[in-house]
Amino acid sequence: MTRNGPLALIFHTLVVLFMLAPLVIVCLVAFTPENTLSLPTRGFSLRWFQAVFHHPDFVQSFWNSLWLALLSATLAVALAVPAALAITRWEFRGRGFLNTLFLSPLIIPHLVLGVAMLRLFALVGATGSFGWLVAAHIVIVTPYVMRLLIAAITGFDRSVEQAAYSLGASEATVFRRITLPMILPGVTGGWLIAFINSFDELTMSIFITSPSTVTLPVRMYMYATESIDPMMAAVSAIIVGITAVAVLLLDRVYGLDRILVGQH
Amino acid sequence: MSFLELRDITKRYGTLNAVSDVTLSVEKGEFVSLLGPSGCGKTTTLQMIAGFVEATSGSIRLDGRDITHAKANSRGLGIVFQSYALFPHMTVFDNVSFGLEMQRVPKAERKDRVDEALGLVHLSPYAGRYPRELSGGQRQRVALARAIVIRPPVLLLDEPLSNLDAKLREAMQFELRDIQRKVGTTTVMVTHDQAEAFSISDRVVVMEAGRITQIDQPYRIYEHPETEFISRFVGKTNLLPGTVQAINGLAASVSLAGIPVEIDAGGLVSGETVTLCVRPEKLRLIAAGQGRLPGRVAERYFLGSQWLYHIDGPLGTLMAVTPNDGSAPLETGVPVGVDWNPSVVRVHRGRLAEAPDPTLEAQ
C-alpha cells in the first residue's frame, strides 16, 4: 500500500466529509429540542423521536416499508439465484436477452416505471394491493441482486461441484452443501442492497401506493410537502440507524470487501 | 476380464472427435498414466471414466459392471482435480469427511477413517484448518485424502501435480506412488509431463489427437517408441533423415546426407526413406576424427547431473547428453567425433513432415 501525500490526504478528507456531513447533520438535528430544523445548541432531546412513535401513520408506514423490503429482497434473491446460475453457466437461446431483461430496470427511470405500474395495476384491478407493490419492488431490486450474484458465480470453480458429485452427493445436496455456501457472500450482499434499495424507494412507490400501503419514504415525502419540522430528521435518523446496523452486521459476518468486491 | 475396461470409447463434439476408439484395460491395483500433449483427449477420456462426460459410443466396464451411462455420483470413484477443488467453506476434516457422509457412514467410523486418511497424507495436525490456510502441497494432499477415504475402486488423478513447483512436484510424485501402493487402489492418472508419468506408472498410455498410439511400460516406451511422434514427445531425441542404400542380409546401409550408417534391416527395402532416432544420452562424444560423424561443439548447457551439448555436423545440430562425472566439460568450438552403438538406433519408415519443434520436445 502506498502512503498518501498531504494533498491526497486533504482531498480524501474533503470527499469523506462531503459524503458524511449531511448524514451527521440530519442525525444531530433529530435530537434538537427546538420546533424548527436546527442543530441542538441548547441540549439534546428525544421529543421528535417520541413524536414519530406517536404518529400512527408513520408507524404504519414503517412496518409497511420493512415488510415490503424484507419480502421483495428475499423473493428477488430466490428469483435471481437460479437465473444468475443459468445465465453464467449455460449457453442457451435467449441467454443474452434474459440477462438484459433482468438488468433493464436499472436503466428505466423509476418515474416511467411508476407510471407504467400504475397503469398495469389499474388494468388488473390491483390498485392498492400490497402483493403487487412487492412485485413492483422485486422488479427494481432484482438487477442489483443479479449483478452481485453474477460476479460471485463467475470464476466459481465448477470442479468443486464435480468433486462433491463424484463423492456421491445428489444434485440437490451439491447445491445446498457446496454451491450455495460458496456464493453466499454474493447472495447476502445482493439481499442487503436489495433491502436498502426497496426500503429507500420513493419515485416509483409514490405512484403505486394506496393509503393503506404507503411506505415510509412516501409518507415522509407527503409529510414534508405540508410542513418541515425536526420529526423528518428523527425519521431519517432511524432509517440511517437501521441501515448502518445491517451493514455493520454484514461486515462482521462476511466482510464487506468480500461481498461488494466479490473476492472469496 | 480386467478390472477397468474401456472399449472403443469415442467422444464426438459436433464434427470434432475429441476421443476416438480408445480401448484400454487396467488391472486391479495397477497405476496407469494417460500421457499426451494438451488437446490429445486424455482429460476427456478421464472425464468419461469419471462420468462427467458421456461417451458418444463404446463402453466402460468396472469390475464387470457396465458403467458407461451411470451417473458420476453412483460410480463411487475417487477423483483428484488439477485445481484440487477443495470445498473452501469446510475444514480439512469436513472436506475429507464429505464423501463418507454421503455414503451414510456412522459418525464414529467416519472420524476414524478421516483420521486414518489424514495420517496417510501426513496432515493430521491440519484437520481443523481451512483450505485457504494451507500451502499448495498441503491442499494437494487433502484432495488425495478426500478421494481415497471413500475407498474407491478406482482413483482418477487429473494432472494432480501440475500446480506445484518443481521440487515439491518431484517429492509428491514418489509420495503419491507410495500412498497408492499402501492402499492398493487402481489408479488412472492424466498428465502431460512425461517424467511424472514415467517415474510412477506401471504402464503409460501415450495419446495423440484423440487416439492411443502406444501402451507399454515406461521403459519400453522410452526405448522403443512405436511412432515418430512418441519418440519426439517422450524425452529428447535426434531425428536423422536418410535413405536405405543397400540391404546386406540382416543389415541395411543407410545414407545420412551422404554418410553411410549400418542398421538392422528389419523389413526395410532398398531406396526407402527412413528416419533414424537416437536419444541424446546414447550419443558418445569422442576424439575428433573418430566415430561415425564429425562434429563441433556449438553450445553446452549445464544441467547439474548432466551436460547437454549441441553438436554441429553434416546432419545439422545434434543433441548429446553426457553424465557430469566431475571431469572438465568440452569447450564450445572444439571438434569432436560422434559415435553410437548400432543397437540404440530406432528406425521409423518415411520422412519427417517437418523439423521437430524444440518446444514440443522440451515437454
From TrEMBL, chain A:
Keyword Transmembrane helix: yes
Top-rank taxon, per record: Bacteria
CDD domains: TM_PBP2
Record membrane topology: Multi-pass membrane protein
Any single GO BP term: transmembrane transport
Domain annotation ABC transmembrane type-1: ranges: 62-250
One cellular-component annotation, GO: plasma membrane
Alphabetic keyword roster: Cell inner membrane, Cell membrane, Membrane, Transmembrane, Transmembrane helix, Transport
UniProt keyword annotation of rRNA processing present: no
Coiled-coil regions listed: none
Major location (coarse): membrane
TM ranges: 7-31, 66-88, 100-124, 130-153, 174-196, 231-250
Similarity section: Belongs to the binding-protein-dependent transport system permease family.
Protein name listed in UniProt: ABC transporter permease
TrEMBL record, chain B:
PROSITE patterns documented for this protein: ABC_TRANSPORTER_1, ABC_TRANSPORTER_2
One GO cellular component term: ATP-binding cassette (ABC) transporter complex
Keyword annotations of the record: ATP-binding, Nucleotide-binding, Transport
Domain ABC transporter: 4-234
Entry GO MF terms: ATP binding; ATP hydrolysis activity; transmembrane transporter activity
Pfam families: ABC_tran, TOBE_2
InterPro entries the UniProt entry points to: AAA+_ATPase (IPR003593), ABC_SmlMolc_Importer (IPR050093), ABC_transporter-like_ATP-bd (IPR003439), ABC_transporter-like_CS (IPR017871), Mo/tungstate-bd_C_term_dom (IPR008995), NA-bd_OB-fold (IPR012340), P-loop_NTPase (IPR027417), Transp-assoc_OB_typ2 (IPR013611)
SMART domains, alphabetized: AAA
GO biological process annotation, one example: quaternary ammonium group transport
UniProt signal peptide: none
Protein name: ABC transporter ATP-binding protein
Organism: Azospirillum cavernae
Upper lineage: Bacteria, Pseudomonadati, Pseudomonadota, Alphaproteobacteria, Rhodospirillales
